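On clarity, I found the account of how folds are encoded harder to follow than it need be. Since the whole study asks how a given chain folds, the encoding of that fold should be made plain. For illustration, here is how one protein appears when written out as sequence plus structure tokens:

:::
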Amino acid sequence: MFDGFARQWTPVLPLARIGNRPQRAVVAGEPLVVWRVDRGRVGVLLDRCPHRSVSLALGSRTPSGGLACSFHGWEFDDAGACEKIPFNPDRGLARRGATKLPHRELGGLLWVFTGFDPDTEPELPDTLLDDSLVRFEHHETWDAHWTRAMENMLDYPHLPYVHRNTIGRFVRAKQRPDSVLHQEVRDTDFGYDVTPWLDDNPPGATLKWYAPNSMVLDTIPAPRLMRIQIYCIPAEPNRVRMLLVTTRNFARNPAAPFAFDRFNVKVLHQDRAVVESSDPVIVPERGLETSVPTDKATLTFRTWFNRELPHSSVADPRERTPSTLEG
């Protein structure tokens, strides 16, 4: 399970998008069902009933906050425990539970662990925990592998070309035919920092990679804050859920959010066609593609990915639990 993305914390959806009605969300090829158990708690199970392996997302929330399967009415709590089997009141319930996924509710996002025994916790910027900031969330799905999307988000040299009429225009204004782009990449506890600068110009932005699948871009010097955070969430095979979260500490009047938010979604959409055209679909090992010094940030991510994740997986819990017909 979770082939190529095992034992990682990743957000799945904004908490504001999760209601009482069960919904399916695929992470690294594995369907999950998510729903709101009560006001303070979200449930996350593998999206399959242990009885006949149908989708629990087709079911409904029970009065106690659990899930009832739409096929035969089996009921489960948010820990996966089977609470009721219609027409079989004397059957044992303990061995007939659904599978719970470790999850956290942090920074306005639902996080899941792509495994069953986490030994770490999610890493996220403090800005996601600051309720005083103006916030915007948007998500959509692209036909691309998450690694291609992640590299694109860490790639500064494409700004004056893909984003020539948006965020890249500031780079274009300084760019000369003989310009040289410099980048300093520094390891951090969460991933790495990238500081780019053009020729002798001072750095105009800072970029951070939060392992495994997030980019954070600060575009305005302090004390103002305009932070763009993008999560590249592996979904179905060769599909990626792009989750955009922006935070800022200015322009709080009611008219401002529309302009800022529309602009940031436009920037995201400018990347889509390029990323979806990648061939091979997944980032390759070194040597297949030609690289140059300004690829340092993306190559650092690529090296990490090819070392840590391509062959990662976790065992399906059904393989550890013998099936039973009676008792």
Summary: Residues 322-327 have pLDDT under 50 and may be disordered.
